[in-house]
């Protein structure tokens, strides 16, 4: 949680956000483990302020400047994103960099099984996610000023190296399965096919705001991990979430009878995405999913480390992340070994 002077923050917002009046309220959203996010109100207007957390941070983590840049670039592409208004520097009343964007009204589905929705609506919700992901991956970075948004080539090789390094920097407990995964991913590295696009990096159902009344996407949120990369990374990451158990804090679809509930089968979902993009179904699918497991467990390891260091955005029940990380490493290894 940030400490700040209310009047100083109000003056900052009045200076940089067009039409901003008085700062009536600022309330932290309770969910999220990365960048602290606040709802701010000024008269009848509502905004979202998203900031880097206080304290010592990993060099490339919590990049609100990248979130701001990619959403601003995508504003005219048909990819639904909030309107962004202001990006600060590092010297701010909050003590860290922040951005201000529009508060998009709509629905966030925290349960991927969508138990409160009609059976036919569930399929339409997931198909909207599929269509939006394909639309994002069709955007040419150079046409929206993002040709320098990431390094070209060898995406998975660089990502495995990056997340291995970050995992080792934040490790808190010995975890042989994670060590095994780092070696397996390096030994089974897929060949670079030269494909590159804007990838979201954390594409899942609870990072999306849906229209209040229709199965349409109003805004895709949480672009902190976006970069130029391989589109199959986003697709496999979303499908990896569906393999996680439908229990506790995982929010997966593992064990759910998808056909009975009107939820998409993974193979059909991948095929629909490929049809929309006009590409062949991917080979080496297990590699992409195993990579997604390892990447997420490395991210969660960073969450655990920040919590132990007292810098977590949401510090509740930090001990649970140890069990989650260990289970993900075990499940990913089983997938790598047995398919």
- How many strand elements? 9
Proportion of residues in helical segments: 40-55%
Task: Please tally the helical runs, counting DSSP H or I stretches of 4 or more residues.
Answer: 10
Proportion of strand residues:
5-15%
Integer tally of domains: 2
Mean pLDDT: 92
The run of helices and strands is HEEEHEEHHHEEEEHHHHH
Low-confidence stretches: none
Keywords: Transferase
GO molecular function: transferase activity
Domain Aminoglycoside phosphotransferase: 25-252
InterPro entries: ACAD10-like, ACAD10_11_N, Aminoglycoside_PTrfase, Kinase-like_dom_sf
Structural description of this entry:
One of its GO terms (molecular function) is transferase activity. Pfam families: APH. Residues 25-252 form the Aminoglycoside phosphotransferase domain. This is Phosphotransferase family protein. Keywords: Transferase. With 339 residues, this protein is an alpha+beta fold. The protein has 2 domains: 6-102, Phosphorylase Kinase, domain 1; 119-338, Aminoglycoside phosphotransferase (APH), C-terminal lobe (Aminoglycoside 3'-phosphotransferase, Chain: A, domain 2, Alpha-Beta Complex), CATH 3.90.1200.10. It has 10 helices and 9 strands. The chain has helices spanning 6-16, 64-74, 119-138, 155-170, 176-187, 231-243, 258-261, 266-277, 285-309, 320-338; strands at residues 25-28, 37-42, 45-51, 84-87, 98-102, 197-199, 208-210, 217-220, 227-229. The protein has a 5-stranded antiparallel sheet, with helices on one face. A two-stranded antiparallel sheet has the order 6-9. The chain has a two-stranded antiparallel ribbon with strand order 7-8. A hairpin with an 8-residue loop joins strand 1 and strand 2 (37-42). Helix 6 (231-243) crosses helix 9 (285-309). The protein is globular. The N and C termini lie far apart (42 Å). The model has no long low-confidence stretch (mean pLDDT 92).
């Amino acid at each position: 949680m940030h400490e700040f002077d209310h009047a100083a923050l109000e003056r900052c917002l009045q200076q940089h956000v067009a039409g901003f009046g008085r700062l009536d309220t600022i309330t932290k959203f309770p969910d999220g483990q990365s960048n602290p996010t606040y709802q701010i109100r000024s008269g009848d207007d509502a905004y979202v302020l998203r900031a880097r957390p206080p304290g010592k941070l990993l060099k490339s983590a919590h990049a609100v400047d990248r979130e701001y840049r990619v959403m601003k670039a995508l504003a005219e592409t048909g990819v639904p994103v909030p309107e962004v208004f202001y990006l600060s520097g590092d010297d701010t009343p909050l003590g860290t960099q922040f951005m201000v964007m529009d508060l998009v009204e709509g629905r966030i589905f925290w349960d991927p099984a969508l138990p409160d929705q009609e059976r036919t609506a569930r399929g339409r919700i997931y198909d909207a996610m599929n269509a939006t992901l394909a639309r994002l991956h069709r955007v040419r970075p150079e046409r929206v000023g993002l040709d320098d948004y990431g390094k070209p080539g060898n995406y998975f090789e660089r990502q495995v190296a990056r997340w291995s390094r970050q995992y080792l920097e934040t490790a808190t407990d010995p975890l042989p399965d994670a060590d095994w995964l780092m070696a397996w991913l390096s030994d089974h590295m897929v060949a670079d096919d030269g494909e590159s696009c804007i990838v979201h990096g954390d594409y899942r159902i609870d990072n999306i705001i849906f229209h209040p009344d229709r199965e349409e996407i109003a805004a895709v949120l949480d672009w902190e991990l976006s970069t130029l990369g391989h589109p199959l990374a986003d697709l496999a990451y979303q499908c990896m979430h569906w393999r996680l158990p439908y229990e506790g804090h995982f929010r997966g679809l593992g064990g759910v009878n998808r056909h009975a509930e009107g939820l998409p089968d993974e193979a059909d979902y991948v095929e629909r995405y490929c049809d929309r993009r006009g590409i062949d179904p991917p080979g080496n699918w297990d590699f992409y999913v195993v990579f997604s497991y390892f990447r997420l467990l490395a991210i969660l390891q960073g969450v655990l480390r920040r919590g132990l260091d007292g810098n977590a955005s949401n510090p509740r029940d930090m001990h649970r992340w140890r069990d989650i990380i260990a289970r993900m490493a075990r499940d990913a290894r089983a997938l790598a070994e047995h398919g």
